[in-house]
Amino acid sequence: MSIDSSFMIAVGTAVLLMMAVFIIIFVAYYQQKQAKQQLALKELQAQHRRELMAATFRGQEEERKRLAEDMHDGIGTMLSITKMSLNQLEQKLGGELQVGFEFQKTRSMIDETMTNVRRISRNLVPTTLERFGLLAALEELADRATDGDLEVQLNYPETPVQLPAPLELMLYRITQELVNNAIRHARAEHITIQLICFDNEVRLSVVDDGIGFDFDAIMENRQGGLGLRTIESRLNVVNGHVTFDVAPGRGSQIHVQVGLRDAQPVDLLS
Length: 270
What we know:
- The chain is α+β, with helices and mostly antiparallel strands.
- Helix content is 65%, strand content 12%.
- The chain contains 7 helices and 5 strands; from the N terminus they run ααααβαββααββ.
- The protein has a 5-stranded mixed sheet with strand order 1-2-3-5-4, covered by helices on one side.
- Strand 4 and strand 5 (253-259) form a beta hairpin.
- It is elongated, with a radius of gyration of 31 Å.
- Residues 264-270 have low confidence and may be disordered.
């Protein structure tokens, strides 16, 4: 074989190797680009889902406010007028004992209904939260829930907690749901709400001594577990996390963590 032939073979081999290397680099680059595009698409989809959930929760809060205003301004006012009319009618009919007893019974029913209307209105729109902040609202929630053998305790830092208003609303709604579940379903007698704030994180815990529940069974049941799924959905909006330390036959410990830097998108809820 001549020197020229050997040289040509060497050159051809080198060219083929360079082409092979180029193809490998191109394929690797293309795959990397595709992976980045897929990751970006997933992030956009996740952001879109968070925005949809945020819009849903915002709509729910607006509907709560509308219902609370209707109850306070409409039903509450009508009950007050009815009570005034009842008092005037009693004066016109005189002081007969049986009539007076019936009027007193009716007034008691109206007073009880008015109390329930105010309670439902406060639950729909926590005015204490808007006026005085999260700690005051949680204290009010604990005081209202404490009744007889049921005790609800709030533990919080001595330093006042300063959180964005929408985040406070979200944490209040989560606490409200967890406390109601502990009372209605777990039949707890003692519930502790704990709020801890760090520089970059807020932690909320609700601990009870109730009968517990099977978390997997509830989450698999489409008819149940709506409140727990709503909690997870609320936290997804702010990249938060919830841990359910629960089991049948024992008390439950539920811990919520929200990074304050990650919580900025919660403004979508306002």
